[in-house]
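Morning. Coffee machine broken again, so started the prediction first thing and wrote up yesterday's gels while waiting. Chain of 115 residues, entered below exactly as on the submission form.
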Amino acid sequence: MTNLFPAVQLLQHGDNKVELQLDIRADIAYFEGHFPNAPVLAGVTQLHWVVQYCKQYFPQLAAVSSVEVLKFQLMIRPNDSLTLLLERTADATVLFSYSREGSKVASGRLKWTLA
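Came back before lunch.
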């Protein structure tokens, strides 16, 4: 079976904040062909995961209406261990950040419509 998501451990879960530990396995399908000799996880995949985890942990969110201040600072490679922080604000916005060993890897802000 093809893996599409990392192994996940829930570190913290509140009404407006979720922190996840992500173990980026080498067998994740999104590494195939991106790039053969030096695989990296595409930014679109990182964003896809954020959307999926937001839907899972904040079920009142319906659909993404905009993506803002999207930044990719460091590459994500097979066997990386990351922390993903999701913080929901009162106006149906989710701030997210991926980090590795205290260094920010990627971040951004998603505006949502409500269910």
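The chain has a mean pLDDT of 95. Going to sketch it on the whiteboard this afternoon.
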